[in-house]
Amino acid sequence: MTSEWRGRPGRIGALTGAGISTDSGIPDFRGPRGVWTTDPIAELLSTYDNYLADPDLRVRSWQARRDNPAWGAEPNAAHKALAELADGGRAVTIITQNIDRLHQRAGSAPDRVIEIHGNMFDVVCVECEYATSMAATLERVAAGEPDPPCPDCGAVLKAGVIMFGQQLDRASLLKATLTAQTSDIFLAIGTSLQVEPAASMCAIAVEHGADLIIVNAEPTPYDSMATEVVREPIGVAVPALVADLLAAREDLTG
């Protein structure tokens, strides 16, 4: 497999999925031990219509948010490597499908991280403009409100994440698309590339001339488009790729 892409200058886009956070103790969704694999009911918690229609499901959802391992998770070597890539002088924009904010905590600039599926630390009302923090809402749950309603209009509250059946935020989708279109190298890390439109960023990047590098344990629908497919563990593979990219930059700049 050619490695010439490592020496290519220009912009780097990175699409990251649940697999990049498993080393931080956050399970993925579709893997052999994924959340939805081991507990099919959990997928219902992520479906917007079910969430709105079923108060019992919302109660379970608030409990799941309270117990989410992301509260105690720390960025791992892969998150830190992507931050180091930007610190090393490469223009890096991250499109993440994750809601854990570990990229920002690892040192990636918040304005260079596009949270295409939202984040778990905000809470919004489904009917009005009310918004607050997850921590504040979980305090209400702990105080005896198992399904806390909006304090302004009484409607349903939900996490600031995009659920199945919801449209993506247009501004975030536009930023992600522009990132894919303008990338010279596009990394897809720890994502099954089965959820659209996020996965289609790979095709957009390739169509606009980028080298696509996929780092994932399992095959993806986009492997045939890739310049290189890496199956090594993400916590090892991403720091190694970043080291190669930074070494190539040193060679280019002399």
Portion in strands: 15-25%
Strand order across the largest sheet: 3-2-1-7-8-9
Cα Rg: 19 Å
Count of the domains: 2
Which term fits the overall shape?
elongated
What average pLDDT do the residues reach? 92
Low-confidence segments, ≥5 residues, pLDDT <50? none
Q: Which percent range fits the helix content?
A: 25-40%
- Annotated CATH topology of the largest domain: Rossmann fold
CATH architecture of the largest domain: 3-Layer(aba) Sandwich
Q: Give helix and strand order, one letter per element, not per position.
A: EHHHHHEHEEEHEHEHEEH
Give a short account of the largest sheet.
6 strands, parallel
Q: What structural class do you assign from the helix and strand content?
A: alpha/beta
CATH superfamily of the largest domain: TPP-binding domain
Distance between the termini: 26 Å
CATH class membership of the largest domain: Alpha Beta
- Number of separate strands: 9
Q: How many H/I helical runs?
A: 10
